[in-house]
Design a protein that fits this description.
By secondary structure, the chain is of the alpha/beta class. The chain is built from eight helices and nine strands.
Amino acid sequence: MNSYQNKILLKNVSKSFDDMEILKDINIEVNKGELVSILGPSGSGKSTIFNILTNIIKSDNGLVKVDGKLSYMYQKDMMVPWKKVIDNIGIPLIFKGKSKKESREEVKKHIEEFGLGGFEYKYPSQLSGGMKQRANFLKTYLTTNDIMLLDEPFGALDSMTRRKMQRWLLDLTKEMNSTILFITHDIEEAILLSNRIYIISEKPAVIKGEIKVNLPKERNEDIVTSEEFIKIKKDIINLM
């Protein structure tokens, strides 16, 4: 019997749209405090898994369990262009019934931690892609920091900004007590960030394997050239 606390459990989950099979017999579990990645090619049905977890769509069969509150960060920044950054971030708090003043005060508590100091009263058009995603991540965090679904959050960024954001997320997650399920098609990103990785095939998507990332918790950019990192990368490539 599993002694860990499952925050997310998908067991034998399948999904078809009309005559097209998207997911086939998907089994995924994410335990409390883990960062788990789903790694696979674009268009393989990874986002469909997130849509099932958030009840946007229903699975055709199988077991779906979520133990806690979910927040969902999309690949696009989803910021309202005419609102200042601080008010964009505070939208979930407004939905929860806080006033504009109260939501701003709550956002201000996290502005420095999320690397947005000095940018809170700018408009989204004045922010870089990386800054927009920091703001989007904070908005997701304020929705709930219990279970976070991150759908290729750095996919639209250039490679240098992407690396910076990966390091930033690694540093940030050390301070958080969140459970994170992370979608990516980038092998190195998955290894760098994750405790475990599920390899998913092209449609109809099946789980081709699970990789445990036995790397130190302290992961700097040099780790990508280490023997263990390269071994994990080869194991993943052999599965894909």
